[in-house]
Amino acid sequence: MKKFIINIAIFACLIATCDVLLGFGFKYLSAHAKGGDTGRNHYICHQLEKDIVIFGSSRAIHHYDPVILEDSLGASCYNCAKDGNGIIMMYGIYKMITERYQPTMLIYDLTAGFDLLAGDNNKFLGGLKYNYDCNHIDSIFWNVDPLERYKMAAQTYRYNSDFLQLTMDNIYPLRSDNNGYRPVDMTMTYEPKNDNRPDTITYQYDELKMYYIKKLIADCKAKGTKIIFYISPMYRANSDREYGPIIDYCMCNNIPIINHYCDKKYVFNKSYFYDSFHMNRTGATAYTKEVVAEVKNIINSDTIVRQ
Fold first, then answer.
1. CB 108 within 8 A of CB 229
2. CA separation, residue 279 to residues 59, 230, 260, 261 (Å)
3. CATH class held by domain 2-301
4. What is the distance in angstroms between the CA of the first residue and the CA of the last residue of the chain?
5. Residue 133: helix, strand or coil by DSSP?
6. Domain locations in the chain as residue ranges
7. Which of 39, 52, 229, 248 is positioned for an S-S bond with 105, CB 3.0–4.6 A?
8. Which SUPFAM superfamilies would you find in this protein's record (predicted)?
């Protein structure tokens, strides 16, 4: 029995040593990626220092061209949005950015499914796993799932689904971007199925997501960052009712929110979209130019705009 216990202890020590060494290797790859998602994420979390930052999901990464904003507003700008993510990850990104500096403006493009509606929040933690040891990040994991604190003790757990991505981004990155912006040069050639939702539908909202939206607003206000919420166009959208709580909250608390979700200038123009959720480069260019004018109006008048 004594020999068996010793063997178990030796085996456990070997596993722990391998985990630490592999974690160190993965962390090195993450910090030294040549580009791709890995390089972009590391830059945003640990190096970015731009005047204006854009947050949100894939709708943000494809809808806001930082170069247009820079040229028109005379301030540096970077698109920090990430596919398939929302406020839970974005709040963590904000906390890491503000460890270094304070942006002058934050433009947040809202997506109901990722920023407001109830769902599985664990999936939003993936983009923060590499940075679990950074200040303020561990508490986000605990708020989403208390068991995560035990899982994150394993270094390899933090990278367990990204080894191929890490390797490729250190050898030959396949994805590039322009100040974080990723335009799409395709046009939708089909007509999506009519997805009009009845007014009787009941939306289930997520208290944790709303909690982090309010924390983001409070942190920006305390540190002097101007935060502006946007809801960008959605092809053939005819109702923005799912955004009701955040629109009402912003209006009641004097937080600028600009709503183009059902804007007829965009939502019935198929040439502006590459699918029903996302605008292509042509649409994003036209839309960003309007955003510039609206941002200038907010800067000059400090008033809320709602469309």
1. yes
2. 8, 15, 13, 12
3. alpha beta
4. 74
5. coil
6. 2-301
7. 52
8. SGNH hydrolase (SSF52266)
Tokens of 244: 């009701």
Q: Which residues does 84 contact at the CB level (< 8 Å), separation at least 6? A: 57, 58, 114, 123
Structure tokens at 188: 């939708």
| pLDDT tens for the chain, residues 1 to 307 | 777 777 777 777 887 788 678 777 878 888 888 888 889 999 999 999 999 999 999 999 999 999 999 999 999 999 999 999 999 999 999 999 999 999 999 999 999 999 999 988 998 998 899 899 999 999 999 999 999 888 888 888 888 777 788 888 888 787 777 899 999 999 998 888 765 565 667 899 999 999 999 999 999 999 999 999 999 999 999 899 999 999 999 999 999 999 999 999 999 999 999 999 999 999 999 999 999 999 999 888 755 445 5
Structure tokens at 256: 């600028």
Q: What is the CB neighbour count within 10 angstroms for residue 73?
A: 17
Tell me the whole-structure pTM to 2 decimals. 0.91
